[in-house]
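[job 4471] stage=fold_predict status=RUNNING
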Amino acid sequence: MKRKKGGAGIWRIVVIVLVTLAVRDQLRLPPEERTWHGRIGGRIPYDFRMPTIERMRAAFWDKDTSQILVPQPFGVGWTINLYPLLHPGLARNSDD
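[job 4471] inference complete, writing structure tokens
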């Protein structure tokens, strides 16, 4: 008996479309202007640079913001900043 993929198939298509749009935007730029990070449609963040420890730490454990959803250190979309979840009174509110 085969299981229906339903939602998983749709999400896979959405991710492929978003990655394609981000790569297309970068390839339209002259090579010296390509940064491999930015926003799709000015809203959805992407970053295809090699991840560093600093960017990973800033994404998953950023004490300098109270934002919970922050851009991925690699890929498309957002990830969860755990610091304000585990220390709600200690995160700096730099977004105000």
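[job 4471] summary: DSSP finds three helices and five strands in the chain.
[job 4471] exit 0
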